[in-house]
Design brief:
Number of strands: 21
Number of helices: 4
Shape: globular
Number of domains: 2
Order of helices and strands: HEEEEEEHEEEEEHEEEEEEEEEHE
CATH superfamily of the largest domain: Lipoprotein localisation LolA/LolB/LppX
CATH class of the largest domain: Mainly Beta
Strand content: 35-45%
Radius of gyration: 20 Å
CATH topology of the largest domain: outer membrane lipoprotein receptor (LolB), chain A
Structural class: mainly beta
Distance between the termini: 24 Å
């Protein structure tokens, strides 16, 4: 069953508001500015944000607030020009360390001595917010400059991304002026209510790269129970499914079939027991879509009455989750999008 994925494992770290002293201020751009100049400037900053998250060397502490909860993490990120190296350590709740070398990811739970080794892309994790350049984003968001701001002692340029339809949330982004690194992001709904905030409380940009510190830590797995989830790239059509008439702007990112495993209490539980599938381990099909800014994941697994108790609709900050039965299948749709978008994805899913 996939409810545990709601705890941010599908996309990002888990998410009391920050102290007023940490809240950045944004100065609205003066009215009457040239809209073409503003649009060009906004595109420029989107491109810088996209590039900086991958190519800049930085380290700091960021805080995620959502649904009245707060979670802080320590991040170190290095790039040597071709390769990326990253370490993220949770500072609240269950201790977890995540090491990444490009797409190779090691997730460690020191208390339970469990390590999960897998290959996956870093998607939607602060400060790597954008998955594409401005050309993918501007057709579906009105992008405007809000002037200047300040976050964690750094001067920033502030952008507003206002959705053009009801299929996505809005964003306010604070980008560090010199590097373009995303310092703060806010996700807000159609009423301008902030659903989720991610922000650095302190950050150093341009630190000396030490990729060996990440690589060495990834090799220290003695004493851990190492789990290597089975991931297989698949074609959703050949798996017997179609997704038609999707919300505008969302494009297919990947489709994988995975064996569900337990790890450190935060990984998804198995889709079924060995008694229910005695000849082969159960698998779950995951299909990921993105509009360049946000993601939607669709999970498809066999319906098992003992595990799949009830359909539901859940919300945690910006993350919405729709769980429903479709005949002999159990469907879970998750994304930082309005509920109407999840329903549209669920309605678009059809057996081939």
């Amino acid at each position: 069953m996939l409810q545990n994925i709601v705890a941010r494992g599908w996309r990002a770290m888990p998410a009391v508001v920050l102290m007023a002293a940490l809240l950045p201020s944004a100065t609205r751009a003066q009215a009457g500015g040239d809209p073409l100049v503003e649009a060009r400037d906004a595109r420029y900053w989107l491109a810088r944000i996209h590039e900086a998250a991958g190519k800049r060397n930085f380290q700091g502490t960021f805080v995620v607030t959502a649904a009245g909860s707060v979670a802080s993490s320590r991040i170190v990120h290095f790039c040597d020009g071709r390769n990326q190296f990253e370490r993220i350590e949770s500072l609240d709740g269950q201790h977890r360390q995540v090491y990444r070398h490009n797409d190779l990811v090691h997730s460690l739970w020191p208390h339970s001595r469990v390590a999960v080794v897998e290959t996956r892309q870093a998607m939607g994790q602060f400060p790597l917010l954008l998955s594409a350049g401005a050309d993918r984003i501007v057709p579906f968001y009105d992008v405007k400059s809000l002037g200047d701001g300040r976050v964690a002692g750094h001067e920033a340029n502030v952008l507003l991304l206002q959705p053009k339809d009801g299929y996505r949330f809005g964003y306010r982004l604070w980008a560090e002026r010199s590097s373009g690194l995303l310092l703060r992001s806010e996700v807000f709904d159609e009423r301008d209510v902030v659903l989720e905030t991610s922000a650095f409380s302190e950050v150093s940009i341009g630190v000396k790269p030490r990729p060996e510190s990440v690589l060495q830590a990834m090799k220290r797995l003695d004493g851990y129970r190492v789990e290597r989830p089975t991931l297989q790239q698949v074609d959703i059509g050949r798996e017997g499914w179609l997704l038609n008439a999707l919300p505008p702007g969302f494009r297919h990112v990947s489709s994988v079939k995975r064996l569900m495993t337990v790890a450190g209490g935060e990984q998804p539980r198995p889709a079924a027991s060995q008694e229910e599938f005695p000849l082969a381990p159960p698998s779950v099909l995951q299909v990921i879509y993105s509009d360049g800014l946000t993601y939607v994941s669709v999970f498809i697994e066999p319906y098992m009455p003992r595990l799949h108790r009830r359909e539901m609709l859940m919300s945690l900050g910006a993350t919405q989750t729709l769980v429903k039965r479709r005949g002999e299948w159990w469907i879970t749709v998750i994304g930082d999008v309005p509920v109407v978008t999840l329903r549209a994805f669920a309605a678009a899913l059809e057996p081939r």
